[in-house]
């Protein structure tokens, strides 16, 4: 007996006109934007049923992939404890539980090294500060936002989200008694900061467009109705954030748009004081601030495209005194201050790095790292007075590793490497069985585009291998080499995994970003196609063995390349994809729109931007061509890329190019990041990877 494949859902077509700059566009699926309408939910439910039926033959493969990830994961585990004051702070995971447990243990007399757990068991003398599994009880979704222990260790500020819309409720817990105070603030954003005496907590709230725009001051033990606005940002291009410096001397209020910033400071010992401006905002000038002794460190791009480091006086902020001059091609990304050292996070030649400066000296050195391709960045370093820093390191073949580094002797101490347990076949993970490579594609304008690759050792370069190529290319975000347990299931089935480091990201410095935004955005798309063509030309794969994957703004990339080069791929995965970009950026009432104009341009006021965006936005450019198979994954409660963008895109693809194979999967109780629990996230990844392997002809 055979089961007939159900017919694909057909969305009704209700023509809605949009007129801008003399151009009239018709959107037949605008009705899908009504999240509360029963017909919208019915349509998304029908799409889910269709996708479930069309992928039913992959159920066993999904189960196998999930089990491979689970078997390779040490489910009961404990992070490397980080010392702050008189405690070691760490998190634990427990087999069978979806969420982490946040803990601390008092530092014992003479104890200088972080305590070690056996098989991830709780440390002797442990205090559980928050158990995500208890907080998540009765909810399909759970996310922890703020998690901030006060300087004296007495209070814990934490916030929770149970829908995925990233609107958090802030609470304060007394860590001496375990009681959660009556203090409760709804609709808060990320970011909190304590005063020096822990009597006052600063936090951030959002406006109706989801823009964080207010910093508040809350006195512990008082109703939220008595809280005071410390700063309100009226310019809709700007976000606000708040944090306490590592020295615990100052509260920083960071005010920034995509290209301009301003920082205000409040002494942590005088939390009711008026915020002082470090430097007034100037259009196009970005800077960040870190406190270090008698000075504020200023990382800035004023006449320094890839940023320079300067300082100004704490007592009377004014002129910026140069410390590290601008060096084109070396992008300075952040500076972290410790009592006797500074650590600069940077990138050069497409790789991340850490640079150390000794206080009072202009000498510096870069921390040497062992592989040609890697990713490195500072980990939790809460103590200001320390001679050691902690950083994380990984590569495409090296599991996530935590190191302590002595800033004077330069000794590098491996504290923990993420375990990779034997898979279902019992085989131990051996990095030597895999190869990582850096290759380069040539873009249409002659620019060389880096590609990072990983595969099983000995993978043929004759075009016979299947390949998955990943891309992003927006917001100066870099997709640095990273290790993935679920990816091993692809590599062990002969799949080559590649990352196309296209323009619009930040891999090769600020210019790399500038050449992939605004009226140069199409470089992002043509770069990715150039990388796909190069992978074929270099023998890594063939067009009928190549799947592309991207998420969010990387989902926009996926939709654009589907229109630009449908013949280059056999399948495309677009997760929470920004595929109706023009419509969204035209609507300033939508979350994030106004803040995005400095990234994409303002099509509402600028006809050139309107025409340019219309020429590449995926939804606007669906054509009657032979598209590769497309899987779009979204979430109903996503506030960053609204669910209706991929829903409309799939509906239009079916109407205009009905011969294609298009699937839409909507998480009905999640946000931008998808399912929140780790097992649910593994199941989601298994679903996507099973679809990819099916397109590549591998099981």
TrEMBL record:
The keyword Iron does not apply. It comes from the Bacteria. SUPFAM superfamilies: alpha/beta-Hydrolases (SSF53474), Peptidase/esterase 'gauge' domain (SSF50993). Residues 9-414 form the Peptidase S9A N-terminal domain. One of its GO terms (molecular function) is serine-type endopeptidase activity. GO terms for biological process: proteolysis. Keywords: Hydrolase, Protease, Serine protease. It holds the Pfam family Peptidase_S9. Residues 482-697 form the Peptidase S9 prolyl oligopeptidase catalytic domain. InterPro entries: AB_hydrolase_fold (IPR029058), Pept_S9A_N (IPR023302), Peptidase_S9_cat (IPR001375), Peptidase_S9A (IPR002470), Serine_Peptidase_S9A (IPR051543). Belongs to the peptidase S9A family. This is Oligopeptidase B. The lineage of its organism: Bacteria, Bacillati, Actinomycetota, Actinomycetes, Micromonosporales.
